[in-house]
What we know:
The chain is low in regular secondary structure. It is built from 2 helices and 2 strands; from the N terminus they run αβαβ. It has one domain. It is globular. The relative contact order is 0.31.
Amino acid sequence: MRxxxxxxxxxxxxxxxxxxxxRLYPKxxxxxxxxxxxxxxxxxxxxxxxxxxxxxxxx
Length: 59
């Protein structure tokens, strides 16, 4: 991940997302998904939604 973050923007980190898991996931791991974009991409809004449709939060 660190290698990718050298040339790309990690939206999970930039937008202070604390977890991409829902309470349906019983383990302690907080992240299942990462969204990376090229620096020239303008992101107007980004969030991990609270909807619980699986053990992954919709992003």
